[in-house]
Amino acid sequence: TQLLEQSPQFLSIQEGENLTVYCNSSSVFSSLQWYRQEPGEGPVLLVTVVTGGEVKKLKRLTFQFGDARKDSSLHITAAQPGDTGLYLCAGVDSGGGADGLTFGKGTHLIIQP
Amino acid sequence: GAVVSQHPSRVICKSGTSVKIECRSLDFQATTMFWYRQFPKQSLMLMATSNEGSKATYEQGVEKDKFLINHASLTLSTLTVTSAHPEDSSFYICSARPVGQGANSPLHFGNGTRLTVT
């Protein structure tokens, strides 16, 4: 069974601060996806990282895939209240679930104005 | 593109009754859809894989007689929670991947159904 450890589980910070969310595993993934979910809605894909060492930027969000493709991070610069939500990482591999994904437990992020 | 519609978004039912949740792919076809359950402040838990034209595959610990899944067409899967009890109250989400796209391609999620059993 593959595991994807996501941390922190909860994070509440002030608007304008920076933060980093981590996903770590002992397993290698072919790619890793980051989703954001707002209350009462389904997850929405933010980005997929595929290549070891890859860095992708989405406005103030920076995603990095570890060189060994076992870990990933999401860094948010100058967080805003609109960034509030549940952030999920999901490793993609045939060894994952039937849906091909191994989900992290999620990071509940609250940005206070 | 690749929109998944889930209905209803919220439902309240009495204990002992059954509830049907629909998951539709609006602009693509999907031979496989997935159903998840999500408890408050937790991640998604895969319940079952819905296979078009054949029986669903259930994850360990999920009662197939309680959570009936039907995937009668390439754009529609339904999840029926039978004889619902308060402990079945949860957020149910479906997802689908367009036919022909590989496992590395992202899943498209519905907006979820909040089920409350009183």
Supply the key terms.
heterodimer, A: 113 residues, mainly beta, six-stranded mixed β-sheet, five-stranded antiparallel β-sheet, 0% helix, globular, B: 118 residues, four-stranded antiparallel β-sheet, 49% strand
What's this model, at a glance?
The complex is a heterodimer of chains A (113) and B (118). With 113 residues, chain A is mostly beta strands.
User: How many separate helices of chain A?
Assistant: 0
Helix content of chain A: under 10%
Tertiary shape of chain B: globular
Strand content of chain B: over 45%
Mean pLDDT of chain A: 93
Radius of gyration of chain B: 14 Å
Q: How many H/I helical runs of chain B?
A: 0
Element-by-element helix/strand order of chain B = EEEEEEEEEEE
Task: Determine the mean pLDDT of chain B.
Answer: 93
Largest sheet of chain A: 6 strands, mixed
Structural class per helix/strand content of chain A?
Answer: mainly beta
Distance between the termini of chain A: 40 Å
Task: Please report the total strand number of chain A as a whole number.
Answer: 11
β-strand amount of chain A: over 45%
Class by alpha and beta content of chain B: mainly beta
Q: How far is the N terminus from the C terminus of chain B?
A: 37 Å
Strand-and-helix sequence of chain A, N→C? EEEEEEEEEEE
User: How many β-strands of chain B, per DSSP?
Assistant: 11
Low-confidence segments of chain A, given as residue ranges, are none
**Runs of chain B with pLDDT <50, length 5+?**
none
Description:
The complex is a heterodimer of chains A (about 110) and B (about 120). With about 110 residues, chain A is mostly beta strands. Chain A has strands spanning about 5, 10-15, 20-25, 30-35, 45-50, 55-60, 60-65, 70-75, 85-90, 100-105, 105-110. In chain A, the strands form two sheets. In chain A, strands 2, 4, 5, 9, 10 and 11 form a six-stranded mixed β-sheet that branches. Chain A is globular, with a radius of gyration of 13 Å. The termini of chain A are far apart. Chain B is mostly beta strands. Chain B is globular. Chain B has strands at about 5, 10-15, 20-25, 30-40, 45-50, 55-60, 65-75, 75-80, 90-95, 110, 115. In chain B, strands 2, 4, 5, 6, 9, 10 and 11 form a seven-stranded mixed β-sheet that branches. In chain B, strands 1-3-8-7 form a four-stranded antiparallel β-sheet, with no helix packed on it. Chain B starts with a strand and ends with a strand. The interface of A and B includes residues 41, 45, 97, 98 and 101 of A.
